[in-house]
């Protein structure tokens, strides 16, 4: 009986410890829960409405695993859980970056899939640099994704800000003549 009681006590302690551990892991005070709605809230707060209205398909449509978010013509923005749980300033930067790819799909030079608009000073085929510039221009946060080899320059940023400020109506719509 004594042995059984001791075992029961031990098990109770182990179970208690597990519950404490689980609870502390499951509800850290500061981490946000990744969701497409959180990503779309970030998008709303960072991209001007004129641009969002011009490209309604450019919104978070799916949550994916891994650390990379991705965009495809008319498929929306697939946001990684990693990005979607980031603090809001970083998530806004990610969503603005991805929106930049969609601007390229619809208003880009179409030299290649995702090419920047005609005149982009860092080269229209530098598709990640263009998105990097849009991310910085709209969010005010200069944070580069690991796939952005050539970062947005001061010249690139100035040009992109001026181009965006004119609004979608000021630019020819090219609608991804080249796409997947
Ligand atoms: Zn990108």
Detailed description of the structure:
By secondary structure, the chain is mainly alpha-helical. The chain folds into two domains: 1-30; 36-170. Helix content is 51%, strand content 7%. The chain contains seven helices and three strands. It has helices spanning 2-26, 36-46, 49-54, 81-84, 88-107, 127-139, 154-165; strands at residues 60-64, 70-72, 76-80. The chain has a three-stranded mixed β-sheet with strand order 1-3-2. Helix 5 (88-107) packs across helix 6 (127-139). The longest helix is centred in the N-terminal third of the chain and has 25 residues, at 2-26. The radius of gyration is 22 Å and the shape is globular. The model is unreliable at 7-29 (pLDDT under 50).
List the defining traits of the structure above:
single chain; 180 residues; mainly alpha; 2 domains; 3-stranded mixed β-sheet; 3 strands; 51% helix
Short description:
By secondary structure, the protein is mainly α. 51% of the residues lie in helices and 7% in strands.
Q: Give me the number of helical elements.
A: 7
Total E-strand runs: 3
Structural class estimated from helices and strands: mainly alpha
Q: How are the strands of the biggest sheet laid out side by side?
A: 1-3-2
Query: Which hetero compounds are present in the coordinates?
Result: zinc ion
What sequence of helices (H) and strands (E) makes up the elements? HHHEEEHHHH
Q: List the uncertain runs.
A: 7-29
Distance between the termini: 72 Å
Radius of gyration: 22 Å
């Amino acid at each position: 009986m004594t042995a059984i009681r001791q075992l029961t006590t031990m098990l109770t302690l182990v179970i208690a410890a597990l519950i404490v551990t689980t609870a502390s892991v499951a509800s850290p005070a500061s981490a946000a829960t990744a969701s497409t709605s959180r990503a779309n809230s970030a998008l709303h707060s960072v991209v001007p409405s004129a641009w969002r209205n011009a490209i309604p398909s450019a919104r978070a449509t799916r949550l994916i695993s891994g650390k990379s978010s991705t965009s495809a013509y008319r498929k929306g923005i697939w946001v990684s859980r990693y990005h979607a749980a980031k603090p809001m300033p970083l998530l806004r930067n990610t969503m603005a970056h991805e929106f930049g790819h969609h601007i390229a799909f619809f208003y880009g030079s179409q030299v290649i899939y995702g090419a920047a608009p005609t005149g982009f000073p860092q080269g229209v085929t530098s598709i990640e640099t263009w998105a990097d510039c849009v991310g910085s221009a709209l969010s005010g946060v200069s944070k580069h994704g690991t796939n952005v080899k050539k970062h947005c320059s001061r010249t690139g940023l100035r040009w992109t800000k001026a181009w965006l400020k004119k609004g979608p109506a000021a630019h020819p719509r090219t609608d991804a003549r080249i796409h997947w």
